[in-house]
């Protein structure tokens, strides 16, 4: 097994992360310098679950580097529905592609798949598991807007089921960050995640209300509270409403507060915030391109040890 | 808001149209001259409704110019089904693409979307609204086959619901064209369209039978009468049958008559016409490529004021 | 009609086949020599049925040659569901693409389609008909692993319905091959295929058990026995089980035995065989790329007469 896959952000060192972010910043500043660099390279896209942003972002990144993609398409149009195993699928695709991106609903699937191939494989989300490139672009956006040193970040919404949130929290534990988790009690961070974060020496506090910490925050990372989590619609409406933000909510915030969201949003952030200097969520989505360009560039050169 | 979107053909001036058609003719005559011209450029495709011709034609046009595309894919496989607004979707995609093509079922959607982005946005059909690139390729095909000066054109079929037909009629009102509308009474051109055309000074006449005008026509533009418009199947069969053409129908036509159709056709034009010199509908579909190349070339250079 | 389509492998001469395989071997040995050779060329993909391997393999092949593809997408998202005929669809697409690949569920469809277009058209499977590029990559894999001279090949599984098997058998009749067909009686090769093979002078024998011939084989080509063929689940389990192979099955085989499978597999070949030197099925899938590169290269140069 090669060591240039990217499966999880959990064990990425601070140096690993900073190397990718530095490269992304270079690319962002001068994309022409790498345009065409990986001409002739083909990236295989295996998305076993729907995705807009992640898939288009990887595709854009590879094409901005001069390469191209081959896409398995939807599961319905593929051999998967004939009962092919993931191990077989990736072994077939590695004959077509120089690197592979996999999104799959099963936790651990990307790790397993990576053991069957000799080309770099990137996990683009494995169910409740990891989604390391989302974490990298989140970190990049934080660094560009607020810096990763002496950071005070609020992470709000569904903290129980959110893969994105867990990955980000683990990654931030490598940095000098004060993490404030804001959620209804029923959607708190899982106890084992809190435990792990404490083990890593992270500064972690939990809150039920944003008000308690808003004024101290450099960054507010909002995630969606999903209707499906609540058996009772009224209960959902009541709780979700408390974790939505608008201009009024942000009155107590620092002028420099950066608001992030992994998107898609539904009602969590009022559109009136879009035009303020707080809003960084579209920039955050756009940052997926330079970050994934940086990552692909390194993996294709055999550079990331992971 | 930028002024290099293309949302409607209704306000395109004769000069705007002729500039695109002239450029398309240049490209058609010497495609190699622009091959690779827009290398590194990425066009975002957002099709919220199925499309074969329009989507593949834009994709081909961009690739023939040396660029590439990123495609959102079907609505089912995208974030849209998670409740994301069109305004959010296009703002995310503009981080990936240098220009955006949108097809959406809601009238006015492309216009609205264009107000949220800083890259050129092209309307590829907004429900009952507009589809300006179809109009441009129709005009190009007419000009190549019959010329746009002193033109006598019959437009036949479903004139009530046909977005294509309305756009074409508005665009032709800028030229010296005699427009003959041929349809069953129940599928006549909407009164407000007739009114608008008269206001524009267009020469417009309406007919229930093709025979009345066939011998005077330079171009016959056939559109499909859709079964869904008729509650009664027999009524549909009877009426649709009167607006289908075959070799016998065309006996009274000029030898130079050009027959067009936006495709797909079902029974409106008998296959026996395909091999005659009248048939221009496949050429018409093919013309989508040089016309869209011309348009993309101009928009990417910031050239079309619209 | 042009003569540079590829519709069937049935009438490919030994010289035709060897010319493609030789070119594929050259490309396989030095892919860089053709990278970018067909820059600016666009291949149209029309898949009216799901496919992973074939479609991605064609796409990869075209891109490795420096070209690009435009893909009609799924039937659900295309004009086909509006009732467009295949003849119309291909005539539209030939305006976009320099060559066309068609997969369609109806036998004879590719042949019919080829009569309407002036660009090379490749049959990528027409129902129970042909799939010549699968045959070419199968022959390439056999030649690379065991050679095509004095070959002893076992072809096992569903021989009644398998398009892949029939095409391969016809193609092998041009070579000095001893063909052993191994299947349950109910899934034997159709009598007319056996008759044709005898007419071609092929060496053909039929067996109900692999044991009868295993030790004499250079190549064992395994295909899937589909559950749908059996009204009774128990009967299926019993029979399918007899035509699955694992390490124990292969104890009586030559050390040099090459095991092939067109994939996807379900239970026909135990995963424990994957790591043995017998396994050539992933290599076989990968061979689709150089073989299709060779074929596209020749067709685009106007070279294959068929």
TrEMBL record, chains A, B, C:
Q: InterPro entries from the xrefs? A: Asp/Orn_carbamoyltranf_P-bd (IPR006132), Asp/Orn_carbamoylTrfase (IPR006130), Asp/Orn_carbamoylTrfase_sf (IPR036901), Asp_carbamoyltransf (IPR002082), Asp_carbamoyltransf_Asp/Orn-bd (IPR006131)
Tell me the keywords, alphabetical order: Pyrimidine biosynthesis, Transferase
Q: Where does L-aspartate bind?
A: 82, 163, 224
- Binding positions (carbamoyl phosphate): 53-54, 103, 131, 134, 263-264
> In its keyword annotation, does this UniProt entry include Transferase?
yes
**The enzyme's E.C. designation:** 2.1.3.2
Instruction: Please give the superkingdom of this protein's source.
Output: Archaea
Q: So where does this one cross the membrane? A: none
Example GO BP: 'de novo' pyrimidine nucleobase biosynthetic process
Involved pathway(s) = Pyrimidine metabolism; UMP biosynthesis via de novo pathway; (S)-dihydroorotate from bicarbonate: step 2/3
Which top EC class is named for this enzyme in its record? transferase
Catalytic activity of the protein: carbamoyl phosphate + L-aspartate = N-carbamoyl-L-aspartate + phosphate + H(+)
Q: What Pfam families does the record tag this protein with? A: OTCace (PF00185), OTCace_N (PF02729)
Q: Which positions fall inside the Aspartate/ornithine carbamoyltransferase carbamoyl-P binding domain? A: 5-144
Task: List, in alphabetical order, the Gene Ontology terms for molecular function in this entry.
Answer: amino acid binding; aspartate carbamoyltransferase activity
Q: List residues of the Aspartate/ornithine carbamoyltransferase Asp/Orn-binding domain.
A: 150-297
**Cited function:** Catalyzes the condensation of carbamoyl phosphate and aspartate to form carbamoyl aspartate and inorganic phosphate, the committed step in the de novo pyrimidine nucleotide biosynthesis pathway.
What family does the entry list?
Answer: Belongs to the aspartate/ornithine carbamoyltransferase superfamily. ATCase family.
Q: State how it assembles.
A: Heterooligomer of catalytic and regulatory chains.
Q: Cross-referenced HAMAP family, in alphabetical order? A: Asp_carb_tr
Question: Matching PANTHER family, A to Z?
Answer: ASPARTATE CARBAMOYLTRANSFERASE, ORNITHINE CARBAMOYLTRANSFERASE, MITOCHONDRIAL
By what name is this protein known? Answer: Aspartate carbamoyltransferase
Q: Which organism is it from?
A: Natronosalvus rutilus
Q: What is the lineage of its organism?
A: Archaea, Methanobacteriati, Methanobacteriota, Stenosarchaea group, Halobacteria
Q: Which gene encodes it?
A: pyrB
């Amino acid at each position: 097994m090669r060591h240039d896959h990217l499966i999880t952000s959990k064990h990425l060192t601070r140096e690993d992360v900073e190397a990718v972010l530095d490269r992304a910043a270079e690319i962002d500043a001068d994309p022409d310098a790498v345009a065409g660099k990986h001409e002739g390279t083909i990236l295989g896209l295996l998305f076993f679950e729907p995705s807009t942003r992640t898939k288009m972002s990887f595709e854009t990144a590879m094409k901005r580097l001069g390469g191209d993609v081959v896409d398995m398409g939807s599961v319905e149009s593929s051999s998967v529905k004939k009962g092919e195993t993931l191990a077989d699928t990736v072994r077939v695709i590695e004959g077509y592609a120089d690197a592979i991106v996999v999104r799959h609903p099963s936790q651990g699937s990307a790790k397993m798949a990576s053991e069957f191939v000799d080309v770099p494989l990137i996990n683009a989300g494995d169910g409740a598991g990891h989604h390391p490139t989302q974490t990298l672009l989140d970190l990049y956006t934080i660094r560009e807007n607020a810096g990763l040193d002496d950071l005070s970040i609020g992470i709000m919404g569904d903290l129980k089921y959110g893969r994105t949130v867990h990955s980000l929290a683990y990654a931030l534990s490598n940095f000098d960050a004060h993490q404030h988790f804001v959620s209804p009690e029923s959607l708190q961070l899982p106890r084992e995640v809190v435990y792990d974060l404490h083990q890593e020496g992270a500064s972690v506090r939990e809150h039920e209300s944003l008000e308690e910490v808003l004024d101290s925050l450099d960054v507010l990372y909002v995630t969606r509270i999903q209707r499906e989590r609540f058996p009772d619609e009224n209960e959902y409406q009541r709780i979700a409403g408390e974790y939505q933000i608008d201009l009024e909510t942000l009155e107590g915030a620092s002028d420099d507060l950066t608001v992030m969201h992994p998107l898609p949003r539904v009602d969590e952030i009022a559109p009136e915030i879009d035009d303020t200097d707080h809003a960084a969520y579209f920039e955050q989505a756009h940052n997926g391109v330079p970050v994934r360009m940086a990552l692909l560039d390194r993996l294709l050169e055999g550079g990331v040890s992971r």
